[in-house]
Design brief:
Number of strands: 7
Strand content: 35-45%
Number of helices: 3
Helix content: 10-25%
Strand order of the largest sheet: 2-3-4-5-6
Structural class: alpha+beta
Distance between the termini: 74 Å
Largest sheet: 5 strands, mixed
Amino acid sequence: MLFNVSGMIQEGIGATREYDVEGALKAPDGEPEPVHGHVKLLRTKSGVLVTAHLSLSEPEVCSRCLKPLMEAVSVDFEEEFQATVDAQTGRPLDERPDQDAFLIDSNHILDLTEAVRQYREASLEIQPLCRRDCKGLCPRCGRDLNEGECNCDSTVIDSRLAGLAALLEGELSND
């Protein structure tokens, strides 16, 4: 998601541009993820303020039953991209931008890719679910409990008393 902001920078502080975005973002697995939404650019004293409202579809895995799912992710952010060169002369600026700032390159290209990636990661569910009432997998046999019950013993033993339970089972088998 590249934007050439050279004309906007020449116009001066307060210049704006608005774009509808339809594109793809490279996912961590290398597959392109569709991205769509709206981006507004506003020229500031030190660069360009980007206001973005984007929607993505993120491939995920249910944290309970491990089935694949597509998670709809809404990414909204406002970030200032700082210029690295003087708009009039093309020379590098004497004052270097903050090392963590998003930058406009020396050709006046503003690349939203890294900002969208970072905000996407922050917006993802920590434990995505295929549905709210997902029962998950049986911890003993691994059966998907959404498809039906399993035949495992469902007696719950407090892990702090497991040693005593084992002794009790040994006494019962000696009788």
